[in-house]
Amino acid sequence: MDWSDSWRGAFRIELRAEAVSLAYRGWPVLPGTYPTATENGVTQWAGRSGLELHGPIPVHRDWVDRIGTSPDQVATWWAGRSYSLLVATGHVVDAIEVGTALGRRAAVALRSIGVPVPIAATPSGRWMFLVKSGSTLNSELAGNSDVHHYAKGEYIPLPPTTMAHGVVHWRVKPQVCGWNLPDAHVVQDALVEAVRTPAGYQLQTA
Question: What pLDDT, in 10s, does the model give residues 31-54?
């Protein structure tokens, strides 16, 4: 990726607008570290004092205490830097993250029952299904190494956050479901069906 100031500046306005929009809808937005210079093939992350080897992570070490910050304050966070856009899970929104193959099959299963679910995807091939907070994974999914449930005490990157090798993007935007997050069990049922579906088999959509 080109980490030039001009390239990064083009994203800052978009990041700020998206962060403020999410904050107005009650989503717990946080500024995160962003990728900068690469040294010996390893991308470093800026935003805190000094550089970090892994990211994105919250810029503020007391980020838990900042959950629920007003949209006006959120706007000031992105006034000068192109911080990553993070959302704290366990408050309004949770995320169920899976690999691309499993995510595609689950998305087909959800379409077949007419349930739109916001889905964000990372450049590394992870899909995040956004759901209402408050549930836990059922036993079948909890034992699956390809599934991770982001809940209280965690956070996720949302579009248009830049990563080491690309940009987080929407597979299904929240607007498609009118910003109404589904109950977690709906997505979990689709994922269980997808897990039990042989790889390469196309789920029925009719």
Answer: 999 988 676 778 899 999 888 889
Beta-bridge partner residues of 167: 162
Residue 55 has phi, psi (to 5 degrees) of -175, 180
pLDDT of residue 205: 41
Closest to 86 measured CA to CA, from 97, 74, 98, 76: 74
pLDDT over 60 (residue 176): yes
What is the pTM (predicted TM-score) of this model? Answer: 0.91
Tokens 């079948």 found at: 140
Radius of gyration (Cα) for the chain, nearest Å? 17
- Number of other residues whose CB lies within 10 A of the CB of residue 121: 20
Handedness of CA 61, 67, 70, 74 (dihedral sign): positive
Beta bridge partners of 93: 91, 132
For the record, the structure tokens of 195 come out as: 């897990």
